Structures are given as structure tokens and as C-alpha cells.
Amino acid sequence: MATLKDIARTLDLSITQVSRALNDHSDVSEETRLRVKEAARAMNYHPNASARKLVSGRSGMVGLVVPQHRNIGQDGIFLEVVAGLSAQFSGRGMQFVLHIMAEHEPALPVYQKLIGKAMLDGFVLIDPQDHDPRIDFLKKSGIAFVVHGRVGKAIDYPYFDIENEHLAYDLTRHLADRGHSRIAFLNGLVGRSYVTVREQGYRRALAEAGGDDLAHLHLNSEMDEANGLTATIRLFSGDAPRPTAIICGNVRLARGVYQGLAALGLNVPGDVSVVAHDDELPSLRASAFFPALTVTKAPLRDSWEPLADCLTGAIEGKPLAGLQRIGNYTFLERNSVSAV
Questions:
Q1: 27, 134, 275, 299: which is deepest, by most CB within 10 A?
Q2: pTM here?
Q3: Which CATH number does 164-301 carry?
Q4: Measured between alpha carbons, how far is residue 263 from residues 235, 237, 242 in Å?
Q5: Where are the beta strands (DSSP E) in 181-235?
């Protein structure tokens, strides 16, 4: 493996010049910086993390800490997250480290251990919870981090998010404007921040439209196909008022809903209208449903670049105002909704 000395010898530069060029110091000309970086790539040079930290105070490594769960290897969303973030940080010349905690292992001691080793410059946090203890802990620790989402109203940390409250409002209002008053919402797990604000948007739209805000029509679960199917059977069983429309927190839930309605002999949209939020996962296209599914759409892959930008900026000490970003979503009306 090539060393700084090898690059310096090849380019007839000093080791100090090569090191400063690789670390983007301002006293190195753009021409020299480009020459050094091109030579480093050609010679397959990889800096030693410990040595780089001694020189720059940074390791060039960032981490993602996630809990272990039974199907983690088959979780398409998780694989999308890891692949997307890894590619973005790699493109910035940084290393992306995945740490999977043992089942039921508390998170804060894990972060404390990783911070104590002083090998990571920062962390990406995903699936933030209401009153998430990781955020307060990392703020007090003084280490850079970025959150995929927002928690609370006083937000003083880097994040990338979409307007989850607004999109749930838009989906609910779309159904209410077509005469639906009994609208079910299949939401995510209780306690996740985006789940909380989506419920707020749903209830706000119901209240404005005079719809029926019935407790049994708001269900929380993991957002997968199996839960979409079982929730649909539950909604149409027993004596409680049945919905005329269903909102799904993602397209995987919606696929289960379509299956459940078909098993019950109910037609979309003739008997029940269905809408969903679409993260646009490669393996599941809402436009390919029959009938095609009406959605709010915000591709999950559009999150990775701004998250990497915000964490890199936090590590570099850039102003917070530029490290808090909101992504867009689009509303796509298709054929899964009818008026009542």
C-alpha cells in the first residue's frame, strides 16, 4: 500500500506538502491539491485513521448505530439507508462505520464507548423518538451529529427532514374533500417523531373537515405488508363503524391493505379508497398497483446527500442555519380514490 512518502517521491514534493494537500489546507495551491489527490487515487493511497487524526484532529470516520433485529439482513429500507449513506460519505473521502448493537442493549453506553475511543468524528441518527435521549447525550458530549428527522419545537442541531405533518394532512384532506368522513390511518410505531406529527396532521384535517375522529381508526404498527393485511381485517371485523378510506404510512402497508381488501371481497376504490406515503423504494412501485395508488412521494434516497452534507458541515464547524434542511414531497393523484 502506498504511503505519503511514496506520493511525495513520485511528485517531487515534501511529505508535509502532500499531507496538507490531502487535508485541503488553504496554503496549498489548487493545482498542487489536484495533482496530489490524483496521484493518491492512482497509487491506491488510504490514510491511516490514527495518523490523520493526529495531523488534522479528525479521523474522517462517521458512524451509524442501530439496534439488532431479527430480519435486519432482509430489511429493504435498512439496506437502502446503509448503502445510500455509505456511498455519500465515501464520495467525500470519508469512511462510514455501521455499528449494530446487541439485542436489548441500551444505546447511550454504546455511544459513550464509541466516543471514548476517539475514532469517530460524528454520527447519523435515524428513527428519532419523541424526547430522544441520544440527541441530548450527543449535544452534551460535544460531538457532531445529524438527525434524519426532527424532535420537539426547539431544534438546535443539524437535521434533514420532510414535512410529515403536512403530508398526512394533505392525504387526509384529499379524502375528506371527496366526501369521506370515516378515514382510517395505518401509522408507524408509537413514539417515533414522524409518527407523532403525522397523527397531528391527520387529526387536524379531520377536525377541519368535520370527519369522524374515532380511536379504532388510528392504528400503530411496524409499517410492513403483514401489518397492512392484519390491520385491514381488523378494521372490517366486529361491530365498530367501518372506514370508507384508508391512509397508509408507506407503500408496504398499502400492499397489505390491497391484499386484505381483496380477501374480504372489497374493491379499490369502489368500496374503499386507499392512499399512502411513498418512499419510492426500488422494489415497490405505487404506480404499478392495480388500481394505481394515490400518494405523497418523497424518495428516501433523496435524504442521503443532505444528511452527509449537514454532518460534514457540523464536523467542520459551519453555522447551524445551513445545517437544517427540509426536503420536498409531491402529491400524485392516481386511481385509488373515489368520491362518496
A1: 275
A2: 0.83
A3: 3.40.50.2300
A4: 13, 13, 16
A5: 183-187, 218-220
